[in-house]
Structures are given as structure tokens and as C-alpha cells.
Design a protein that fits this description.
Elements: E1 16-25, E2 27-28, H1 48-59, E3 70-75, E4 78-90, E5 94-106, E6 109-114, H2 120-124, E7 130-131, E8 138-152, E9 155-163, E10 172-176, E11 179-180, E12 188-189, E13 192-203, E14 207-210, E15 215-216
Length: about 220
């Protein structure tokens, strides 16, 4: 489903310092909510819950929007389909094997922006392995840099997740959680409607701008 709508307000309107963490992997896969069995498509960009999960893995404890504000830009070189064997449990803990098709993104890259500069320590030496999706989607940090983001208008914004009301935005509409609790079972927190933007568009309002990369950064709070 594609949607094009008007904005109610703009991004953060101040010059700010942020930590930019460049993360690369070989594969990434972000599950569509509601797809339990059968063909498994991937979302085009990671949801907030995946990114907060990655930050939590680096720190070694649960991190949510109350601790840090984040923005990110995600790219990949293409999409393909893999075949994998899964084991389905039935009553009585009997397991049977099945084969499913799963989409994945090739050579993903994530530029993650965090408003707390102290998080550099956690990404220098992550507590747990960093993942871009599933347990097999291992990723590594290739650069950590402190950057200054200056407010600008008419900039390139996209390849990220945005609130559905952002002016000029368009993309796949999904109701997604902000993060998951670390309880058993896990619980989804802060479910909202988002647009999954897999391309850039010209955003007319003010927004933090990374001059080195040439794109805007939408911070989620």
C-alpha cells in the first residue's frame, strides 16, 4: 500500500551533535508482522524495534526511546529469496520439517545516529553480537564518528522508517512496535503506524542534515 500525505510538524529544529555508527553485514531480513508460516517477505528497511534491539545488544541491556533518540539510513544492494528448512512443533512436542522461502537483503548497510555520544563505548566493544534482523544476519561496525547535524530545508530524506504523516513521504504502511520488552514472553511496546521509505525524496521542511553524507536524518523520540 502506498500513501502520500501532508505533514503536521517537522523534525527537530536545532543544530546538534550525534554519534554516527556505520554498520555493514552480508544479509538482512526484517519480518513482516503477521507472517507466521509460508512465504516470508522482508521489510525494505529495519523497523525501530530491530534498531533498538541492536543498540541493546551493543550495550548489554534493554535500551528504548526513553534512553536515546535515534535516526538511521539503510541501504542494500538487492533482494533475493533463500530456501530454508524449519521445524514445526505440534502438540506433544512432535516436530516435523518443512521448507519455506524467505526473502533477504544483500550487502546491507546501516548508518545509525544516536543523540548520546557515550554510546561510542558500547559499539567499540559490543556486549552481544550485532544483528541486522535474524540470528544469522551478523553485522560489524566499520566506522564510529561524532558528527554535527545542521538544520536545513529541501533536503534528501528517506531510506528509513518515518511517521506516516511526514509531508511528501510515500511507501509501505505498517503498524510496528517501537521496541520489545525483555520479559518472557516478550511484549510489543509503542505500536504506531509508520511508512517504510526505501528511496529518497525532497523534504521541504526543516530537518537535521548530515552534510558529509548529503542526507537528512529523522530522529525518533
Amino acid at each position: 500500500m502506498l500513501l502520500l500525505i501532508k505533514s503536521r510538524n517537522s523534525c527537530d529544529e536545532r543544530t546538534m551533535k550525534a554519534l554516527r555508527i556505520h554498520i555493514k553485514g552480508w544479509t538482512a531480513s526484517f519480518r513482516f508482522p503477521g507472517f507466521i508460516s509460508g512465504y516470508q517477505p522482508t521489510l525494505p528497511v529495519p523497523p525501530l524495534s530491530t534498531v533498538y534491539g541492536l543498540i541493546s545488544a551493543a550495550k548489554g541491556e534493554l535500551v528504548g526511546p526513553e534512553e536515546v533518540s535515534i535516526g538511521y539510513v539503510f541501504t542494500s544492494e538487492g533482494k533475493a529469496v533463500d530456501i530454508e528448512v524449519i521445524y514445526e512443533l505440534s502438540p506433544g512436542l512432535k516436530a516435523k520439517s518443512n521448507v519455506v522461502k524467505r526473502e533477504f537483503l544483500f550487502n546491507p548497510e546501516l548508518c545509525l545516529y544516536i543523540n548520546d555520544l557515550s554510546y561510542e563505548l558500547y559499539f567499540r566493544r559490543p556486549y552481544y553480537p550485532l544483528l541486522l534482523g535474524r540470528s544469522g544476519d551478523l553485522a560489524s561496525v566499520v566506522e564510529i564518528k561524532e558528527v554535527e547535524l545542521k538544520e536545513a530545508k529541501n533536503l534528501e530524506l528517506g531510506k528509513t522508517i518515518l511517521p506516516f504523516w511526514v509531508e511528501g513521504s510515500h511507501g509501505l504502511v505498517q503498524a510496528l512496535p517501537t521496541y520489545f520488552t525483555d520479559t518472557i514472553p516478550r511484549k510489543a511496546v509503542g505500536v504506531k503506524t509508520y511508512l517504510m521509505m526505501d528511496e529518497f525524496f525532497t523534504y521541504p521542511e526543516k530537518c537535521p542534515h548530515d552534510g558529509e553524507k548529503g542526507w537528512g536524518v529523522w530522529f525518533h523520540k
